[in-house]
Amino acid sequence: MVDQTEPGGTRAGDDVIVLAHCPLSRIRLLWRHGQRCDDLPPMLPDQWLSVQNTGRVLRDCAIIDPVELTLSPSWCIALQSDHPVAQRAAEELRAGLVQLGGPELALAAASDGPQLNLSHGLAGDGFVRAPAANGLALRGDGPRGLLYAVYDLLETLGLRWPSPGVLATPTPLPQPLWLPPSAISDHPALPVRSLVLGHDLFLAEAEAWIAWAARNRLNTIFVHTTIHEPALGACRLATWRARREQLLPLLRSYGMRIELGGHHLRDLLPRRFFRRKPELFRYDGQQRNPDHNFCVSNPQTHAILRQMATAFFQAYPEAEVYHVWPDDLRGHGWCQCAACASLSPADQVLMATNTLAEALVALRPTAQVSFLAYHDSAYGPKVQPHPAVVLLVAPRLRSYAVGLDAPANGPLAEQLSACVAAFGGGNPNSPQAKLGSFEYYLDGILFKSAPPPLPEVIASDLRYYQQAGLGSLHVLLTGDRPFLHAPPNAYLFARLAWEPQGDPQQLLNDYASARAPHHPPSLISAYRALSQAWQPVLNREPVLEAPPAPAHGLRDPITHPPTDLLDLLDITSRDAELRLEALHKATLQLEQGYAAWEELGAPNIPAAFAAEYAEWEVGAKLLTYIRLRQQLYVLVGRNASRSALREALTEAQRALDALYAWADTHVPKRAQANHRLLRAALQLQLDQIADQRIHNPFARLGLRARRAKDLVKLLPGMVPLAIVDCRL
User: Fold this and answer.
1) CA–CA dist 36, 112 (Å, integer)
2) 550 pLDDT tier (thresholds 50, 70, 90)
């Protein structure tokens, strides 16, 4: 939300505010709504900011005797505040000006010479930049707002941070370096803009991600944790403990809010209690069972939750919001005893979360805990939430081909509305931090290690969330390997979280101009082609119903291979045929994408693009595998001959082997086992067809032996019992 002005004269239109700066510490209103205001007293900067924040628009500025705005060594950076975030802002400004080819300016508390004057109020992310009698003034609503004012100025001069560890500078560097003569006032549309670190691999790179997030105006780092193995979609809580002493000072220097937690609710009722007190645990319809969650109608359960939660909050006092969620299940995880039978999963989750909130406010009255509206708890609860409980909706089982406002995602929109209503309703003109969303645009597990570019979907979603009154937006960064280069979704999310009404096409243009300043249209074309090629995979109906309760005992993973939202292996024959046809058409888009990369130098790609090209390429290779896997399943539906199935299986296996070969080159050794473990699901989906339609009994037995051996290599010390359970 930017209002940018050029210095003007002393007259103004009917809705114009004209400001005079003389000197820097005094700002005087001259005109408002066409009326002279000379009789108003001088205004201090704090009062000026209050004018901006009341919604009255700064349209024009009258500058009295401004200094020459050409940066030279005689300038300094003036900052009186000793706040660590303000100090970070001054250092970032000095370093950024040097990166732009400017002089290394001195830092001073005050100066009579030309200066970049930095100041801030008590709190807030908004900021103002304006020329002044002795230089240029940057003022933040709070220290973090000042930091964003610095980044905005550096961006105006040509710096960009499109990806962690990547700095884009203008070519050639501006000589001399002119400071902008325009005045701007800017503030975020949404109060909480969060990056979720969701794997040890990304926690190991946290310094780069934290700096990138701050420079792109995200203000929250949410460390998503688990204590269970294998830790596929979250950081180990022990890893956060090992890293937090090093990371907390860095987070605080960038003014980052901290949120912490994950699917920890079951951990607050230790499973060892089951032998002595089975009544604390859920009734599954036949018996008490310690497998998931617990019985929320038992007062003893709540007493233990309160005690264990207190210990958890005391052990991790750094968070402002805690996330203590139930098990990650689509259904069949809550209690069905006589006392709980009338309570929906959402009500059972909220009853437990309210107990956590009671324990939390006794320790820290301003801290909060989230209620996760996810899978079977996504329907609005009837239980009244505790004042310290905030809403977090996580619409994972949706169509990512379109935004949440599209008819295809209509049922999820209804769920969202019900949840928002349960928490008091939302106001689109004033989005509330207590209403939040948890999105998956950077989820390497959902998108099988290759998140597709989603510019229009992200923009549509964030506008929808804003209209619904949600003020907290989180994006999950997780996967089975570290990214060689961050997906463009990261940059798009950060920019649109600040201003959801932004133009996604323009943001993609900005990204491409930063990454490929000599050939931005080629990079845009490559990402557009990949985005379009993903459409047949992303286009699906939302999943609303939980699957049938799993059968007791072990399941053969070859007979029942694991699948996720985007696999769609159980659709009707007609839908499968249509999907295959769309995937065949998508090969044309991939060819166009490869042609665009050739314009950028592929296959002998310049070093500056090598990592980004490799990430684009793995997405294209994954789509090739999905198309050939779909072809195999369609042939099964047609009752094709064994020879035709064998030929199709060979093609699909070749495409999967190409993904493995890519990983051998690009996935670091520390992540290889993790990556191959999740890729094993793709292999098992091919094995299912070989097992059911091609192999004889001895070959089927040999197939299981090979897969058992593969898993033993990936999971040292763990016996893959499910595969040992062979059924011929």
Assistant:
1) 32
2) low
- Residue 279 neighbours by CB distance under 10 Å: 14
**Are residues 138 and 208 both part of a single domain?**
no
The CA distance from 555 to 721, in Å, is 9
Domain assignment of residue 704, yes or no: no
Contact 500, 563 (CB under 8 A): no
Say how far apart CA 405 and CA 460 lie, in whole Å: 7
The pLDDT score that the predictor gives to residue 551 is 61
> Domain span at residue 634?
536-546+564-694
Q: Which of 166, 187, 208 is the last residue of a domain?
A: 187
Same structural domain, 446 and 470 = yes
Q: What is the CATH number of the domain that holds 146?
A: 3.30.379.10
Domain count of the fold of the chain:
3
Q: Which helix (H) or strand (E) holds 438?
A: strand 432-443
The 3-class SS string of 144-202 reads HHHHHHHHHHHHHCCCEEEECCEEECCCCCCCCCECCCCEEEECCCCCEEEEEECCHHH
Helix (H, G, I), strand (E, B) or coil at 604: coil
| 472 and 541 belong to one structural domain | no
Are 402 and 377 contained in the same domain? yes
Task: Answer yes or no: are the C-beta atoms of 399 and 536 closer than 8 Å.
Answer: no
Tell me, yes or no, whether 67 and 149 share the same domain.
Answer: yes
Contact assessment for residue 217 and residue 200, using Cβ atoms and an 8 Å cutoff: no
Count of Cβ atoms closer than 10 Å to residue 223 Cβ: 28
- Can you tell me the distance from the alpha carbon of 569 to that of 692, in angstroms, rounded to the nearest whole number? 15
- Rounded Cα gap, residues 332 and 548, in angstroms: 8
Evaluate whether residue 703 is within a structural domain. Answer: no
Q: Which residues pair with 496 in a beta bridge?
A: none
CA distances from 372 to 130, 323, 352, 411 (A): 43, 8, 11, 18
Query: pTM of this prediction?
Result: 0.90
Q: Judge residue 104's burial from the number of C-beta atoms within 10 Å of its C-beta, 0-12 exposed, 13-18 middle, 19 or more buried.
A: exposed
Predicted pLDDT of residue 553: 61
Give a three-class secondary structure readout of 457-518: HHHHHHHHHHHCCEEEEEEEEECCCCCCCCCHHHHHHHHHHHCCCCCHHHHHHHHHHHHCCC
Q: Give residue-wise pLDDT tens across range 127-167.
A: 999 998 899 999 999 999 999 999 999 999 999 999 999 99
In this structure, is residue 718 part of a structural domain? no
542 lies in a domain?
A: yes
